[in-house]
Design a protein that fits this description.
Length: 174
């Protein structure tokens, strides 16, 4: 019995080590009011997942700005996420209920900017991942992208099609 428990412990330890070795960790940043603009570049074969964007203090609302290369229709930049306010203890907002945070995924290529807000601390948690399922963009590596082949469907029930004169299919009589 001791040997079985020891083997299970070794197996669980190896599995836990593999999980930590291959995990793609989230990154977190704190942006104070006197910091410079946080700029994150998302390459073309990656995407960025923002799971948390909060603001403590300040009067203006912080936003996540995204610039897509070659996008001249919208001036090139748009706001995709506003910060969730977590401190309503003072001022006219003291009676508001807590806000619900949102998540956003940004496909590359893109330039993500977060400008500091005077008198506020911003907190963002994000992760950049390789887009392995797109199959586009040339070159080896990615999956998918090909034309799927049709799958034949076989039926155990025989079917009948009317003949060229429009006569219906024969039916069996009991």
């Amino acid at each position: 019995m001791k040997m079985l428990a020891l083997r299970c412990l070794v197996a669980l330890t190896l599995l836990a080590a593999a999980t930590f070795a291959f995990a793609n960790p989230f990154k977190s940043k704190i942006i104070s009011g006197d910091d410079s603009v946080l700029e994150i570049i998302v390459p073309g074969d990656h995407f960025m997942k923002i799971t948390n964007f909060t603001q403590d203090g300040g009067t203006d609302r912080a936003v996540v700005e995204v610039t897509l290369p070659g996008d001249t229709e919208n001036g090139g930049t748009t706001n995709v996420l506003t910060a969730t306010r977590i401190d309503f203890s003072t001022g006219s907002n003291a009676v508001n209920f807590p806000e619900t945070g949102n998540r956003v995924w940004i496909a590359g290529p893109a330039r993500v900017r977060i400008r500091p807000v005077v008198g506020a601390k911003l907190f963002i948690t994000y992760k950049k991942e390789r887009d392995e399922g797109s199959g586009g963009g040339g070159g080896g590596g990615g999956g998918g992208g090909g034309t799927p082949s049709p799958i034949p469907i076989f039926s155990a029930t025989p079917t009948c099609t009317p003949d060229i004169f429009g006569n219906p299919c024969p039916t069996a009589t009991p």
